[in-house]
């Protein structure tokens, strides 16, 4: 639902005339909703026609009434499987990455926004979500790779939907699948031309350390034998 802005220090009324900026703001909300799958392309076209024909706030308001307001999407879930997905105060909150004849890397503990955009041209990038936290329950990563490559690493407990397209290139969709109950949903979409986007499932780093420690202890137990003193 679109909030009415103030004009000249007083709240706007439904009968007040809308500006071009007001129409563009509503159009942006609709485009984001279509990108999240809340609207079909046909619905988006119909509503955009109504947006640009609207003259007052009363005509704009119904067009987003059934959509969540900006900044009011459900928060990332609380821990439900031993992993805390909630944002970390003070951690980086990158909104995108660009690699033009160079590269970028987003890894470690960082807060993933609702929408993250990546672009690689004659370059590359790496987006590692194994230690990432999430600002909201669903995150969309949009990737454009032209004669370049982007690698996305997702832990096993995230739900992943890969919806990209590759032409004379590749957009790996094998990582799509469900995650742990209550885990964030990551949607990876975009386009690769003469380039590639690789999406890989990997164990979380702390899980790897735990398994390595368990294997070490098992090996020590086998060397010591059953009669070794405890």
From TrEMBL:
Residues 205-214 have a biased composition (Basic residues). Residues 1-24, 63-87, 205-230 are annotated as: Disordered. Residues 16-68 form the DUF1707 domain. Residues 116-170 form the Cell wall-active antibiotics response LiaF-like C-terminal domain. Residues 69-83 have a biased composition (Low complexity). InterPro entries: DUF1707_SHOCT-like, LiaF-like_C. It comes from the Bacteria. This is DUF1707 domain-containing protein. It comes from Actinomadura litoris.
């Amino acid at each position: 639902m679109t909030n009415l802005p103030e004009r000249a220090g007083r709240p706007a009324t439904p009968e007040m005339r809308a500006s071009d900026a007001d129409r563009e703001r509503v159009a942006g909300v609709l485009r984001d909703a279509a990108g999240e799958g809340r609207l079909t392309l046909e619905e988006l076209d119909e509503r955009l026609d109504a947006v640009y024909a609207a003259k007052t706030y009363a005509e704009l308001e119904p067009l987003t009434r059934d959509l969540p307001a900006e900044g009011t999407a459900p928060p990332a879930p609380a821990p439900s499987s031993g992993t805390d997905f909630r944002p970390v105060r003070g951690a980086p909150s990158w909104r995108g990455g660009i690699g033009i004849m160079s590269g970028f890397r987003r890894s470690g503990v960082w807060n993933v926004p609702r929408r993250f955009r990546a672009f690689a041209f004659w370059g590359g990038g790496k987006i590692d979500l194994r230690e990432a936290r999430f600002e909201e329950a669903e995150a969309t990563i949009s990737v454009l790779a032209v004669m370049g490559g982007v690698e996305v690493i997702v832990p096993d407990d995230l739900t992943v939907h890969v919806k990209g397209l590759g032409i004379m290139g590749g957009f790996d969709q094998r990582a799509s699948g469900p995650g742990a109950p209550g885990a964030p949903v990551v949607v990876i979409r975009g386009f690769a031309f003469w380039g590639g986007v690789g999406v890989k499932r990997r164990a979380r780093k702390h899980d790897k350390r735990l398994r390595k420690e368990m294997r070490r202890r098992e090996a020590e137990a086998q060397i010591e034998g059953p009669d070794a003193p405890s």
